[in-house]
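Lecture notes, unit on protein representations.

Consider one protein chain, 142 amino acids long.
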Amino acid sequence: MANESKNRVKLNKEYRRIGSISKTALAKVNEYFEVPADATDIRSNTDNMLKHNKGHLAALEKALDELGITKEGYAEYIAKNFNQIRLGNKPRSLVLVVRNESTSHLAAVHLYFDKNENFWLVKSVHAERLADLERMTLVWEK
């Protein structure tokens, strides 16, 4: 048990907290799958996220420059400004969306709930087409 606790602390240090999901929004998520009421943290390993999302972020560079957001700060921007939560394509996954009515592309972060660590982990970041997002079930909207 002590070894398990030691590993959990080490794992948590690899991930930086970049945002949170409100308790109200989390209650809506619980209508679709069970998540502990205190599982509000959104975490990211920036190095890992940049490595796995190289192509998506390269395509977004111009838009990020216009917004004054770095590639490293993109996931955090979404985690702090999302106005929709949709069900992801994988079990226990969500998509956080920053929806702006003036664009046909939307900023999105795909999250996976890590039940062993009790937080949401950023899996991928990119711009989604409106049509693709609208096929995903809307869970919560600001």
